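Q: I'm building a small set of examples for a reading group on sequence design. Run inverse folding on the following structure and report the sequence directly after it, with nothing in between.
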């Protein structure tokens, strides 16, 4: 019930505070970008995807955020594959 929700919210705050202490002032992770920009700049994490768009390989670059991809094995090839998919803006990597 409501008491359980309050307890979980309190625990969540405790864990967030603990995480902040563990990070020791390190920068927080980047917030999710709501709208993908076609502008190629150092601050645009989707610049690689924009290069593919300019080459005509990717037409609807916004759609990539809706895809889920499963990578089987994250060794030498799989880990690089997962990273590149993430850098291109894939919605979810499993």
């Amino acid at each position: 019930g409501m008491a359980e929700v309050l307890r979980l919210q309190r625990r969540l705050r405790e864990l967030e505070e603990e995480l902040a202490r563990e990070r020791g002032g390190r920068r927080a992770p980047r917030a999710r970008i709501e709208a993908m920009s076609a502008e190629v700049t150092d601050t645009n994490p989707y610049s690689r995807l924009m290069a593919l768009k300019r080459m005509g390989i990717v037409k609807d670059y916004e759609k990539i955020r809706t895809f889920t991809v499963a990578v089987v094995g994250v060794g030498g090839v799989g880990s690089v594959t997962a990273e590149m998919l993430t850098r291109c803006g894939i919605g979810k990597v499993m």
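The mean pLDDT is 79.
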